[in-house]
């Protein structure tokens, strides 16, 4: 299912930059991934969404740490980041719902991106496509814990 099938041309607001700081005491982050994807594509989608979230939202990833013997380990997420399986229709509906709520921040990742070999190829393909026609592979969502839990509480962990 594409966004066009779900919304019949409705414009989806740009929600990716709403939240710039993550507070583990009040916020929750999750990644929904298309359960029909093969494990390699699902893993790729989740990793790209995680990188995007970590780059765009301060406080989601902690500082680098060192072991007693001085080996450096990069920072990891400061709060659990559940990876949940969803159908394509559920993925689209949750993306649209979260994008429409100002307290939520969304990080969509598409099958269009997965089909490209270079960033330039992706940039050109994305510029030539309408977002409503681009199938989603995964969506990262950050928002108030209560809202996120209500939105994704019924989804199983990806296994």
Features:
Pep_tRNA_hydro_II_dom_sf, 159 residues, Bit1, two-stranded antiparallel ribbon, DUF2000, DUF2000 domain-containing protein, 19% strand, UCP033763, 36% helix, 6 helices, globular, alpha+beta
Explain what the structure shows.
The protein has 159 residues and is α+β, with helices and mostly antiparallel strands. It has one domain: Bit1, CATH 3.40.1490. The protein has six helices and six strands. The strands form two sheets. It has a four-stranded mixed beta sheet with strand order 4-1-6-5, sandwiched between helices. Strands 2-3 form a two-stranded antiparallel ribbon. A hairpin with a 5-residue loop joins strand 2 and strand 3. The longest helix is centred in the N-terminal third of the chain and has 18 residues. It is globular. The two termini are 22 Å apart.
> What is the CATH class designation?
Alpha Beta
Distance between the termini: 22 Å
Oligomeric composition of the shown chains = single chain
What CATH calls the topology is Bit1
User: What form results from the Cα inertia axes?
Assistant: globular
Strand content: 15-25%
Summing up helix and strand content along with how strands pair, one would put the structural category as alpha+beta
Number of separate strands: 6
Order of helices and strands: HEHEEEHEHHEH
| Mean pLDDT, all residues | 89
Could you list the spans in which at least 5 consecutive residues all have pLDDT below 50? 3-11
**Helical content band:** 25-40%
Tell me the CATH architecture: 3-Layer(aba) Sandwich
Order of the strands making up the biggest sheet: 4-1-6-5
Q: CATH homologous superfamily - what is it?
A: Bit1
Number of domains: 1
Return Rg in Å. Answer: 16 Å
Number of helices: 6
**Major sheet summary line:** 4 strands, mixed
């Amino acid at each position: 299912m594409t966004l066009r099938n779900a919304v019949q041309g409705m414009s989806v607001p740009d929600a990716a930059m709403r939240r710039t700081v993550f507070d583990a005491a009040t916020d929750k982050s999750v990644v929904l991934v298309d359960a029909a994807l093969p494990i390699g594509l699902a893993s790729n989608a989740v990793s790209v969404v995680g990188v995007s979230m970590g780059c765009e939202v301060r406080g989601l990833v902690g500082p680098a740490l060192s072991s007693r013997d001085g080996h450096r380990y990069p920072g990891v997420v400061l709060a659990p980041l559940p990876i949940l399986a969803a159908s394509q229709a559920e993925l689209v509906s949750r993306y649209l719902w979260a994008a429409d709520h100002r307290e939520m921040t969304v990080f969509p990742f598409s099958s269009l991106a997965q089909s490209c070999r270079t960033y330039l190829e992706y940039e050109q393909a994305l510029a030539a496509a309408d977002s409503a026609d681009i199938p989603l592979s995964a969506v990262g969502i950050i928002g108030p814990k209560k809202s996120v839990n209500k939105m994704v509480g019924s989804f199983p962990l990806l296994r």
